[in-house]
Amino acid sequence: MRQSILYTLPLIGAAIARPDVWSLSRKREVPQEHAHRNVNLEVSKSLNLDNPDKIQDPIFGLLGAAAGIKGAGNIKDADCLQQATADQAFTNAKAANDVNGMTFAMIYRALERNSGSVGLASVPCKSIQAVNPEIAALQQHQDPAGDGAQALNKQIAQTLASQISAIGGDTTLANEASTFAPGQVGDQTGAGNTCDDDQDDLGCINSQNLRVDDLTAAEIQAAASGAGAAGASSAGNSSSAASGNASGNSASGNSASGASSSASNDASAGASTAAAGAADFGSCTDPTVTFGTPSDGRKEDAFEATDLTNFPHGSALNIGVISSFICDQLTNKCKASADAVTQCDSADAAVKASGLTGQDAADNFNQALGF
To answer: Average model confidence (pLDDT) for the chain?
Structure first.
């Protein structure tokens, strides 16, 4: 009995010190929400500047719905709490002209949420639209043991790198959102290859060398420049699509096939494709690019999607960041026809190879789509 009492006392003390977070993290099957504690701490700084929804702590957004809702404040959909937390933190950091704060808000949005078992995907946010297109373009990492999850996570990291680049942040931080090595599906302990230490300010996934980076340094550079921008891919991406995007792009910003076929006649690519007229772009009727003063507060002229509802992405100085994202969304969100996707991929490759800038680049891409 004495041993039981002695063992219990420290746990009671910890529960008193951190009642909400401690109790939630010990009751669940797969505790890992503290693994990226370094990211959570940075997001807390930004969130606390203005927290109208009274979100208790960023940690709740990384929990499953049943536990997360207890710290969600005014957010009614626990599956959207992670996005809402990131969105508010990004808004606050942007108002403070804090690039690092904006960067970590995006990293937080891309972190893996807890799920009930190894390989089980977490539920995406569907009921709330992010205010900031940089946050709307992202989604959470998924358990790497899930079907196609590693390929999807790589695409999420590519999107994160391109978004960080668009705000002038440190793109090498894109791998901060990377998760653990895949566990064994069917593991009854639910542990996987995780850690969970609420005292390790570096993040135990980092200090214990458990983080498996999604991207190499070259892949980060390619994604940041637009060459590897797989865009904000939806959870419906297959691993074959992911590998196709990764292998089809080179560090110079041109796809292997697109550059070779269009480099010699890039000036006429847009006009010849446009002659065929606009293809079936599915539910997204305006996949064009606009150049000028962007809507996200950037001071200099930049590229962004004309339709930010269906193509939510922060502005970029490199048209390839936006054009690649648009083409990716045509497949993953808009359900465009195969011909439309091929047409967009060709337009994307052509404008990257053309060397055109500013309005000329936007016109080239748009004309190649038939607009």
So the answer is: 79
Give how many domains the chain has, as a whole number: 2
Residues 83 and 203 in one domain: yes
d(C-alpha 106, C-alpha 160), whole Å? 7
In this structure, the answer to whether residues 62 and 185 fall within a common structural domain is yes
My answer on whether 260 and 205 are in the same domain is: no
Model pTM greater than 0.90? no
Judgement on whether residues 94 and 53 belong to the same structural domain of the protein: yes
Write the pLDDT tens digit of every residue in 347-362: 999 998 888 999 999 9
Q: Residue 365: which of 336, 326, 309 has the closest Cα? A: 326
Query: From its phi and psi, is residue 90 left (phi > 0), alpha (psi between -120 and 50) or beta?
Result: alpha
| Alpha carbon separation from 260 to 60, 88, 265, 294, 346 (Å, rounded) | 49, 44, 10, 32, 11
Element (H, E) at 345: helix 338-354
Residues in the chain: 371
CA distance 258 to 263: 8
270 pLDDT more than 70: no
Residues 155, 38, single domain; the answer is yes
Q: How many CB atoms lie within 10 A of CB 87?
A: 22
- Expressed as residue numbers, the domain containing 348 is 254-368
Instruction: Identify the pLDDT of residue 189.
Output: 61
pLDDT tens profile 225-240: 875 433 333 333 333 3
**Euclidean distance between the first and final Cα of the chain, in Å?**
78
Per-residue confidence (pLDDT) for residue 188, from 0 to 100: 63
